[in-house]
Amino acid sequence: MLTPVPGARLRLHRLSVADAPFALQLLNDPEWLARVGDRGIRTLAEAERFLAEGYWTRYAEPGLGFYGVERLGTPGLVGVCGLAQRDYLPQPDLGFGFLPEGRGQGLALEAAQAVLDHGWRQGLSEVLATVRLDNLASQRVLEALGLQRQRQMLSPSSGQPLWVYRVTASA
């Protein structure tokens, strides 16, 4: 479990196949599909396989992996946040996504700060983030965390233009 900043309203835990119902719901949420992309996960068995074999649960690499985000006092996950090493980026990529009941409340900012702090403690020195040009809400979260817009690139999976943001441990 990651420890958020003092006064945090959330708890983060490593994802497992037990979180497959949540993952199935998030990966098929219309906002996720529009802003992040379709991972082709349509069944509980596919969600279990995604969690067992996918990049969300690669915790063996220092600082990497995604965490389920739970609002304190409310059962169930409302989002995910973590770091993944993408083959098309030189540094780990910060990512997050929330169900409707977890959006617009500052939870992404809290979760992402906890994930970055964990990454710095694990020895990461630089983190990137990619975001669609029209995803202004996520851009605001990244900028609030101190990430700075660097350049544009095309998404290898969709061909959509993305902003690439960057932050270093000393920032």
Describe this structure in words.
With 171 residues, the chain is an alpha+beta fold. The chain has a domain of 114 residues: Aminopeptidase. Helices cover 28% and strands 28% of the residues. It contains five helices and seven strands; from the N terminus they run E-H-H-H-E-E-E-H-E-H-E-E. The chain has a four-stranded antiparallel beta sheet with strand order 1-2-3-4, with helices on one face. It has a three-stranded antiparallel beta sheet with strand order 5-7-6, with helices on one face. A hairpin with an 8-residue loop joins strand 3 and strand 4. The chain is globular and about 35 Å long. The model has no long low-confidence stretch (mean pLDDT 92).
List the helices and strands and how they pair.
Elements: E1 10-14, H1 20-27, H2 30-35, H3 44-53, E2 65-71, E3 77-84, E4 93-98, H4 107-121, E5 126-132, H5 136-144, E6 148-154, E7 161-168
Antiparallel strand pairs: 1-2, 2-3, 3-4, 5-7, 6-7
Question: β content, as a range?
Answer: 25-35%
Structural class: alpha+beta
For the largest beta-sheet, the strand count, sense and barrel status come to:
4 strands, antiparallel
Name the CATH superfamily classification of the domain at 10-123.
Gcn5-related N-acetyltransferase (GNAT)
The DSSP helix count reads 5
Instruction: Quote the average pLDDT.
Output: 92
Rounded Rg: 15 Å
Distance between the termini: 25 Å
Low-pLDDT stretches: none
Number of strands: 7
CATH class of the domain at 10-123: Alpha Beta
Shape: globular
CATH topology of the domain at 10-123: Aminopeptidase
What helical percentage do the residues reach? 25-40%
**Per CATH, which architecture of the domain at 10-123?**
3-Layer(aba) Sandwich
Order of helices and strands: EHHHEEEHEHEE
Could you give the order of strands across the largest sheet?
1-2-3-4
